[in-house]
Each structure stands twice: as structure tokens, then as C-alpha cells.
Amino acid sequence: MNLTSIAERLLARLPNRLAERLFGGASKIPTVRRILESEYEEMLASAPIARPSAEHAVFAELPQQPIAREALLAEIAALAEAEQADWQDGHASGAVYHGDADHVAFLNEVYALHSQSNPLHTDLWPSGAKFEAEIVSMSAAMLGAKDTPDDIVGTVTSGGTESIIMAMKAYRDRAGVRRPEMVIPDSAHVAFDKAAHYFGYDQVRVPVGADYRADPTAMAHAVTRNTVVVAASAPGFPHGVVDPIEELSDMARERGIGFHTDACLGGFVLPWARRLGYETPAFDFSLPGVTSMSADTHKYGYAAKGTSVVLYRGIDLRHHQYFVATEWPGGLYYSPTMAGSRPGALLATAWAAMLSMGETGYLAATEAILNVAEEIREGIGKIPELQILGDPLWVIAFASEVVNVYEVMAQMAARDWSLNGLHRPPAVHIALTLRHTRPGVAQAFLSDLGDSVDEAKTMGAEPQTGAAPMYGMAATFPARRAVGDLLRRYIDRLYTIEDRDSSS
Ligand SMILES: Cc1ncc(COP(=O)(O)O)c(C=O)c1O
Description:
It contains 18 helices and 13 strands. By secondary structure, the chain is α/β, with parallel strands linked by helices. Helix 14 crosses helix 16 (441-457).
């Protein structure tokens, strides 16, 4: 979601215009509610949303006559081309993890060959089940299955969020307690909140230590008799540091509780980093306390967008992920994940991506990314106004006590860099991918970062540029409900269709 645009226009105006009225549940009073609604409307009306340029026709209804395929292909190609440079040049944090033209063309070819397949119909497309089983098996073998006598099983999902959601569902259903609880570090991905929301969990987020890693003592204290799962990350999204998975999973095991390693980011990097000689803490099924994991094929697995793997120690836990219906008039029904029908083509592309990379491909990719990460870490270390948070490998967060770090991010955006803003503490990160290993990208990043810091220094404590005011505001603004309400309305606006003449 592009929050950049909502930034200054919405949140920067909140404290002056709304904050007092929002406190103490005032927003529940009908009159206040009406005022709020009109304020939201006014603010949203002026919030720019990124849209394709105006020459593209808009369709709110079906055209009466079919549009020629060539014309549609030309239109779609133009839309893609206009967006391509933003991710291809290595100026985005994360987002596209491989992106080389020949790799993308190969995945597209594979996708096209299986575009009609749906693994829900195993009789029609047995290849779907083959692809899925082999993706799961290859991922498990990479993530410690060979170091344990237990069966490591799993499924493919639509992404990291669904993998985490499915694992949390499995733990909830296995435990069968009325108010299940999950204990996670504050740095764990928001997908755990989504799972808590969907599946009625009480969630305990535990503050991380000074090194930004989960604090095993504090997490152990947070466990209660309702805790059904403890989770941590390898590494976490915000600061890119690997949590002490061994200590945490041992703690969970001693208490007879499940433990999930979220390796959505690291599952396809850390095993190869270790082989390359990097000191990486144990995080996978080689640890007896790790009972489930998530690892994203669509990130550093270099597949097309839309797949991830969730793995379990033992088939019993996986059974709690499944959905089966025996009494439906539509027949006997079973489905392993949230979706019913699923895109078999994405299974084919994930399978093909993994096989076309092979061990040596992943090793080379990891080496290239970790080399560029070292260069970038060193370079940031030479900018006295910035501090790197924790001891990250390839997702590098930095903060500043001298300049406003959100202003630095905005200055980088003005130089065409799309970085991620973080909260609590205010910081910015870049997740390095193969896009950043292209010649000159690291040097350009560091040079622009130095210039951005210099620029930010001239601008005083208050962030002024681009999204900077939003990040400054969102980090501290106390009326979180109002921020949430605005975000909901912002999403609504993404679904609105501009009032333009579709015949032009
Ligand atoms: C550590 C971690 N877990 C989970 C996710 C969620 O993944 P997705 O966006 O594929 O749902 C992410 C995404 O960046 C992540 O970094």
C-alpha cells in the first residue's frame, strides 16, 4: 500500500484539527462522529493516490463490444513498462527479489504453460500435487529436515502472511482451549496480529532487547497456561536480526508449547549464508523445539509473487491446518489452505524457480547479496549521523540521534529510493535483494544517503519532505483509532474508479 501520499495530507493535519476531539471515546458521540466523518472526507479528498497516467482508459463497466486483444496487450504492456524502472533499477527495498529479465521471462513461460490448472482438481491436474509436494520436500530438506528423525511436512500457501495464519490456526485447533494465547516478540511480523484477529487469539507482544532481538527471559515470563504457541523470526522484518531461536524454542519445548520460526525472509538465505561461512544462529528443524516454520518462495526463493511454504514437525499439526467437509451437498470437500481454488501455475513457477536456481544458484545469490550488504553496512557506518540498529545481515535498519531519520528517508525518496519507514524507535530500513547487487547500485545508495543526511541536517528537527511528516506523526500520535479509521478509508479509495471518459 502506498502510504506516502496519505502521509502529510492526512496525518500531519490530525493533531491540530482532531486530536482533542478524539480522546476519551469522544468519537462514539454521534455529533463528534459526524464531525469526524466530514473531517475524514475532507482530508481524504485531498490525499493523492498513485494512479496510472491519465492517457489510460478507465472501465467502470464492461465495454459493449469486445476490445481487440492486440489493443489490450499494448495497454497492459504500457502499464507494466511505466512501472518497471521503479523496481528494476535496484532502488526499492525488498519488493522484487530477483528480477533479472531472463529469470522473469522463464517464470512467465512456466506460468503460461499451467495458467489453467487448479490443484483443487487433483484428477485433472495431478502435476499440481506433484509440484506442491516437491516444493514442500525441497524446502524441508533445506530447513533442517535431514537433521531430525521427525517427519517435516507442510503445504504451499499464497504468501508469508497466509503461512503464518495457517500455522496459528493449526496451533489453535490442536490446543482446543477457549482463549488461546500467542507469545511473540514485538518485532514479529504483523501477520501474527492478523492471525490473532481471525482466529480469536489473545496476543502478547514482548519488548525486544537492546540488540533488537527477542528477549528469552521476558518471553518466558509472558507464557501462561493458555499459551499455545511461541514464535520468533529469522530474521524479523523491521531490524533484520535473527532472534535467539534455540533458547526460545527450548523454552517452549520444556513447557510443551509449539514454537514457530518465521523464516519468511530468511528461509531461503540463512541456510546458504551458513554454508558460505557466515555465523548464523540455528533457527530451523535441527532444533528439537521448532515445531513449525514459514519460508517464502516468493521472496528469496525467487519465485513469482504468490507463494510461500509452511512446514510442520509431524503430520498431526498439519492436519489441524486442513479444512474438510463431509456433509456438503456439493460433495466431499477438502482444502489444505485458506483458499478453495488455487493457481496451479504459481506452484509450477515456484517449483521451476527452485530447480532452476539449485543449491549453487542460491549460494551464489546469497553470496552476492551478503557482499553488497557488507559494503552498505560499512558505508552507513561511515556516516557519523546514522546508527545501524542491532547486528543485521542483509535487512539493514538505521536510526539517527542527530537528524530526523524520516526526513532522510524522504530525501532518499526525492532521489528515487523507496525505503521502508519503521516505528518504535523511528528508523528506516533497506532489504537488500539481487536488484542491489547490480554494478553501481550500492555506491549510488551510499552517495545519495550521505547527501540526504546532509540535506536533512539543514532542515531542523521537524520533518518536512514527502512522507516524513506522516512517519513522524504516526510514530507518536496518540489517537490510534483515528489513524486506523483513516487507513480503512484510504483502502476504500484504492477501490474507487476515477471519473473519466472510458471511450477516450
Ligand atoms: C519476517 C516476515 N514475515 C512475514 C512476512 C509476510 O509476508 P507476505 O508479505 O508474503 O505475506 C514478511 C514480509 O515481508 C516478513 O518480512
